[in-house]
Design a protein that fits this description.
By secondary structure, the protein is an alpha/beta fold. The protein is built from 12 helices and 14 strands. The strands form 4 sheets. It has an 8-stranded parallel barrel with strand order 3-4-5-8-9-12-13-14, surrounded by 6 helices. Strands 1-2 form a two-stranded antiparallel sheet. The model has no long low-confidence stretch (mean pLDDT 96).
């Protein structure tokens, strides 16, 4: 894998990273998540499983790892793994996020799995928690799912505190979700504190179904921001696990192109993202070594004009995509 600079802080990364949303907590919305964890949610068992996937990712050359305060024990697992493997902080880039609190109490079924609050108090509290879990490994701290509705980009105390963290050497970013991703990115690009651009990185959803943020992501990249792409497999919808009747025609198209290019549906879908030079990091959300190895094959796909044309036809309106996502079940 070849390195590139992620952000203005010169954090060096390779183009495929590993997100820990599916590894740090027993319940998640990815299709087949319960099967991935073999329905064994003992904390020690899950930590050993996470270590196995992290080991495989490291061996494969992955050097960016992405967590969040709301990903259960993801920060704890990641921090423990980094320390036990004696990995030097300069050898790895670690990002985490603040703004959501994990509230499922290690249960699969919960009335509320995570609770969102973009306040100054939550930022300062969760920053301390992330520091305790990740320490000197933490390179990038991101607002988790910034939206226009939350108003976080208009809170002077929050923006000033993020600027203070940036001055101390931590890169600052935001993740975005929902049909208004583009609008949030465009607003974030304009934010300065004391004449300095605040945000170094934006993390957004882009996949062959949901392309609405593309123009804003290109503009952010041109401005010098690092771009991290999440949910490239649409929480499993862009894999053979998606057996919904409504998706079978699209799945058949993906399978035909994957067969033609001698790869898998998931690797093809990831390759479609990697095809864009503005995508600095594309996150694998693998919850097992087999998934990770299949995702890694995306780096070797000879993505071509025919694949670009056929997969372009799968694009959905943003409102339709996010409505479907909102109906995915925690498992």
């Amino acid at each position: 894998m070849k390195y590139r600079e992620l952000d203005r802080a010169n954090n060096r990364v390779v183009r495929l990273g590993l997100g820990l949303a599916a590894l740090g907590r027993p319940g998640y919305i990815n299709l087949g998540h319960a099967e991935d964890l073999q329905s064994d949610y003992d904390v020690d068992t899950m930590q050993r499983h996470a270590f196995t996937v992290l080991d495989a990712a490291w061996e494969a050359g992955i050097r960016y790892f992405d967590a969040a305060r709301s990903y259960g024990k993801a920060e704890v697992f990641l921090g423990s793994w980094l320390a036990e493997r004696n990995i030097e902080p300069d050898a790895v880039t670690v990002g985490s996020k603040w703004g959501y609190e994990y509230t499922a109490n290690w249960q699969i079924e919960a009335e509320v799995h995570e609770q969102k609050q973009h306040s100054y108090d939550r930022l300062t509290t969760q920053w301390q928690e992330s520091q305790e879990n990740l320490g000197s490994y933490l390179d990038l701290y991101q607002i988790h799912s910034a939206t226009l509705e939350s108003g976080v980009l208009n809170q002077p105390d929050v923006l000033k505190e993020l600027a203070r963290l940036k001055q101390q050497g931590t890169a600052i970013g935001l993740s975005v979700s929902g049909p208004s991703q583009r609008d949030v990115i465009e607003q974030a690009m304009q934010i300065q504190v004391d004449g300095v651009d605040l945000f170094d990185v934006v993390q957004a959803t882009w996949n062959v179904l949901e392309r609405s943020a593309e123009t804003a992501l290109i503009a952010a990249h041109d401005k010098g921001m690092g771009i991290i792409i999440k949910e490239s497999l649409a929480n499993g919808r862009l894999t053979n696990r998606n057996q919904s009747k409504e998706f079978q025609q699209s799945l058949a198209c993906l399978q035909q192109e994957a067969d033609r290019l001698n790869t898998t549906v998931d690797a093809l879908s990831l390759a479609a993202v990697l095809d864009h030079p503005w995508a600095d990091i594309v996150l694998s959300g693998a919850a097992g070594v087999d998934q990770l190895q299949s995702n890694l094959d995306s780096l070797n796909v000879n993505f071509d004009d025919q694949a670009r044309s056929r997969l372009q036809e799968l694009s959905e309106p943003a409102t339709q995509y996010w409505q479907t996502r909102s109906q995915l079940q925690w498992n």
